[in-house]
Amino acid sequence: MDLVLGIDGGGTGCRAALATTTGDILGRGRGGPANIRTDLAGACNNIVDAARQAFEDAGRDPALIASTPAVLGLAGANVGDYKQRLIAILPFSQSDVENDSLISLEGALGEHDGAIAALGTGTVYLARRHGQLRPVGGWGFQVGDLGSGARMGRDLLQETLLVYDKVRAGSTLSDIMLERFNHDPSDIVEFTTNAKPGDYGQFAPMVFEHAAKGDVVGQKLVERAVADVEETLAVFDLAPTERLCLLGGLAGLYAPLLSKRYRAIMHPPLQDALGGAVQMAAKRFGKAGGGHG
Amino acid sequence: MDLVLGIDGGGTGCRAALATTTGDILGRGRGGPANIRTDLAGACNNIVDAARQAFEDAGRDPALIASTPAVLGLAGANVGDYKQRLIAILPFSQSDVENDSLISLEGALGEHDGAIAALGTGTVYLARRHGQLRPVGGWGFQVGDLGSGARMGRDLLQETLLVYDKVRAGSTLSDIMLERFNHDPSDIVEFTTNAKPGDYGQFAPMVFEHAAKGDVVGQKLVERAVADVEETLAVFDLAPTERLCLLGGLAGLYAPLLSKRYRAIMHPPLQDALGGAVQMAAKRFGKAGGGHG
């Protein structure tokens, strides 16, 4: 019986699933970070660890790894030559390395046309129509990722400093932020010196929460973020028959705020990204070329 | 005859002037960087070097440093305890360490009430009315410095990526930027990974230049920046009798774009920051407590 592997990897960890060529999952495994840009060899080891666990979980011999093909969805796979270098050292019989957003889309939409919007610490969008892919965004919070948690948190700190300077009117939310930073703008500046996207993004849920209570600073930031998300979605010109799936940590917070046009075509994801990788592997490597369910 | 020192120091270098207690400059000197946050001892050495040169330039014995009082305007003097630590190791008979924006204001406005807007890679504002100081901004480009060259450059890269993704309409300016980054968003992302404020700020003059030619992307960015600057100036509620001085590398580009209200009270600076430090030293340490001219 033929087997396939699906792998979902990112900066915090990776997951593997061993499946039949009809897409039925037999075993699962987990591994450490798979950040191919910062640690290619480490990423490879962690991916193989996860795959080995999936074989063991399924009661199969991990030595079969060498004869099993895999679809891997990895963050950063579209940048530079990291993908080619990883493929060269992976032990699978065949390794199809895709960007993580593609396996997310495959999992979320299955056979349907439509788009995913991954709204978390960063933002990235991917649409598929008649098999044609259209990626948008995902360029990082410094000059992209509009509507992301990182951008919302950064904007909140900016508003807080403008309130401190009495350039703009404050609110409960800006008061809470000033309190948090000891009413000292130097503390905010210090925070921003080495802040990573996730450091800014930690404030995003609080912005949504206060906006919902009518906080003016929170509402302004959320309205801007919703407008940014919808401005990007507009490029896909989604038809009423197509699907929109919101993914990522902020999906549930954005969902009720999008305009009716988008809410009308919004669906929960059919499967997660790992499920998407498995379905892709089953389709690509399965004998009948099918097996999607 | 009594002497005073004025010092103007920042991250790229420092300047010293030896003057009489009536503010007449007798000699000048230059030294290396005076970044008290990153190299306190080095900053002290470079300041003393510059002061020694000023004595020599004036034909005076540098040994008099120990009996000469100084006013020093230094970037970052308002953060943490760097100021106190510097004062403890400076060799002058008295050391008044002020933020660099104060000596800039003193030089630019002299005895007049009003405000300075330092518009360069960063932005910082300082107003003085009846001896009362009101500082605004200067919090760095990550979450502040609206209207600065760094923010304008960062915004330009963001617009360029939005144009690349077809989320927003492009222009000659965005075409030039895409060309510069080989039409590859990854190159822009790579640039932003370690970009310093000055790296972003290098694009600001180009934005003004294209905006002046009617470029829609340039105009949008410049209009937003002008609005940001005016929103901040509004907090000072400057009277028609007060002065506004624009300083910094972008001053000349902003000057014709501000609204009539601000153009009506705009004056060129009377003196530079070093002149301001000298005048402050003459006033503070001079026998008659005066000498401002």
From TrEMBL, chains A, B:
CDD domains xrefs: ASKHA_NBD_GspK-like
Gene3D superfamilies from the UniProt entry: 3.30.420.40
Listed transmembrane segments: none
Superkingdom, natural source: Bacteria
Domain ATPase BadF/BadG/BcrA/BcrD type: 5-253
A single MF term (Gene Ontology): kinase activity
InterPro entries hit by this protein: ATPase_BadF, ATPase_NBD, Euk-type_GlcNAc_Kinase
Keyword Protein biosynthesis carried by entry: no
Any Pfam family hit: BcrAD_BadFG
Name the UniProt record assigns to this protein: N-acetylglucosamine kinase
Keywords carried by this UniProt record: Kinase, Transferase
Keyword Kinase on entry: yes
